[in-house]
Amino acid sequence: GMNIYVIFRALNSDLPLGDEPISAVVEIGKAMQQLSLKDFFISLISSFRWEDHLWPVMYLYGFFLSLVTHDSYLAVKIASKIVYLLIIGGTVYLSYEFWKSKSRALFVFLLISLNFSQYWWYGIVGTIFPPANILTLTSLLFIKKYIDTSQNRFFVFFCLSFILMIFSGEVVFVTLPLFM
């Protein structure tokens, strides 16, 4: 509860202007708006700023943020709050799906909501990895649903989500052991 109040208070806080979501992700999205359809798809697998990463999901995220507003600062500021709430909600829902216990889900909520480091990166600064984190939660949910029901559609959704997760940022490699 307290973090929800702090998040809305944080709408008035300032973001570091040199942070990657503002200086890179949304700016790449703005540049992608100017491309032809062919070049748009080529840019999804391109490397920007001498990076050695393939981040097509991240570039799409920046593209959609740049469509919302041309103000990179405002786009990241609003998106970071929404993503933070999605991560909290998704993690609590996933913990309930795994344990089928409201008390454990509440415990997970308390652990997350008291994690001020996570709040800082997602609630205020707005990290460049929101798609990676959301796709990790989605992949875990789909593999859990597949294990529980043996329905092939959940396996297909898991595979699609997992592939998108891999191409959304290097932070997902920390989560790969969850799937083994």
Structure description:
The protein has nine helices and no strands. Helix content is 72%, strand content 0%. The protein is mainly alpha-helical. It has helices at residues 2-10, 20-33, 37-44, 56-68, 72-99, 102-113, 116-125, 130-149, 152-166.
Throw out a few tags for this protein.
180 residues, 0% strand, mainly alpha
Break the fold down into its secondary structure elements and pairings.
Blueprint: H1 2-10, H2 20-33, H3 37-44, H4 56-68, H5 72-99, H6 102-113, H7 116-125, H8 130-149, H9 152-166
Can you summarize this structure?
With 180 residues, the chain is mainly alpha-helical. 72% of the residues lie in helices and 0% in strands.
Low-confidence stretches: none
DSSP helical segment count = 9
Could you say which structural class the secondary elements and strand pairing correspond to? mainly alpha
Number of strands: 0
Radius of gyration: 17 Å
Query: What general outline do the C-alpha atoms trace?
Result: globular
Biggest sheet architecture? none
**Percent of sequence in beta strands:** under 5%
- Mean model confidence by pLDDT: 81
Instruction: Indicate the percent of residues in helices.
Output: over 70%
> What is the distance, rounded to the nearest whole angstrom, between the alpha carbons of the first and last residues?
34 Å
Secondary-structure element string: HHHHHHHHH
